[in-house]
Design a protein that fits this description.
Layout lengths: L9 E4 L5 H12 L3 E4 L5 H15 L3 E3 L7 H15 L4 E4 L14 H29 L2 E6 L12 H20 L5 E8 L5 H14 L3 H12 L8 H11 L11 E4 L7
Parallel strand pairs: 1-2, 1-4, 2-3, 4-5, 5-6, 6-7
Helix pairs in contact: 1-8, 3-4, 4-5, 6-7
């Protein structure tokens, strides 16, 4: 349903060329926000994606290919958003990568990359977005954490550490801005069928000689009691709620949408 809740506002969503980030960006566009896309991908496909969102929702779009592990590129992206649209009203920190290994076998460069992209990048975008948000006395910062910001899983040390860190950063950002119009919250998805998770499904199917559907069911049955994936669209609707006036007193929460994973 098209709306005007965010008409004239600008939403910057990191890691928004696919998966959860794209689902969230589309929901904001649907509500009239201009979108700054960021993420990896084929230049032609990213151009087509922008064109589609522009024509479908009648909003303006821009793209910046900042590598979220590099503070200087993040600074360039935030300057670009300010020049293009006059600033960022809604910041969604979604960019993330994954690597799976036991702690003693975990490649040091993978640890560093995951901490940089999944945690430090959110600090950099946040510190750069806050001054303008505070000046306007309105802003929404949404950190896409994970159920792994609330609980652990074997072989995901860097990811779990980064996502717990994101939840902590969310609380501090919320508290520092508690008296004003800027809120900060975290969304903690369970299994979502993104390209990142599809890779894990494919690996399991190959290892255990399962069909792709069987591998999906096996993956879900381990952790997610509902037996269904969360969708990017559902996460987008939660993001919209957290950016609404109704959520102005929701501050510093880590809201899990996880089919019951953390309730166990």
């Amino acid at each position: 349903m098209q709306g005007t809740m965010h008409q004239g506002k600008t939403a910057l969503v990191t890691g928004s060329t696919s998966g959860i980030g794209l689902g969230i960006a589309r929901k904001f566009a649907e509500q009239g926000a201009n979108i700054v896309f960021n993420g990896f991908g084929d230049a032609g496909e990213i151009e087509a994606l922008q064109t589609q969102v522009r024509s479908e929702f009648g909003v303006q779009t821009a793209y910046h290919g900042a590598d979220m592990s590099k503070p200087a590129e993040i600074e360039a992206m935030m300057r670009f958003a300010a020049e293009k649209f006059g600033g960022v009203d809604i910041l969604v920190n979604n960019a993330g990568i994954q690597h799976v290994a036991n702690v003693e076998d975990f490649p040091v460069e993978k640890w560093d990359a995951i901490i940089a992209i999944n945690l430090s990048s959110a600090f950099h975008t946040t510190r750069l977005a806050l001054p303008a948000m505070k000046a306007k006395n309105w802003g929404r910062i949404l950190n896409i954490a994970s159920v792994h910001g609330l609980v652990g899983s074997a072989q995901k040390s860097a990811y779990v550490a980064a996502k717990h860190g994101i939840v902590g950063l969310t609380k501090v950002t919320a508290l520092e801005n508690a008296q004003g119009g800027v809120t900060c919250n975290a969304i903690c998805p369970g299994w979502v069928l993104t390209p990142l998770v599809q890779k894990q499904v494919d690996a399991r199917a190959a290892q255990q000689s399962l069909s792709n559907d069987e591998a999906k069911k096996a993956l879900l049955s381990e952790k997610q009691p509902s037996g269904d994936f969360v969708t990017p669209e559902q996460l987008g609707e939660l993001a919209l709620f957290l950016c609404s006036d109704a959520a102005s007193q929701v501050r510093g929460v880590a809201w899990n949408m996880d089919g019951g994973w953390v309730a166990q």
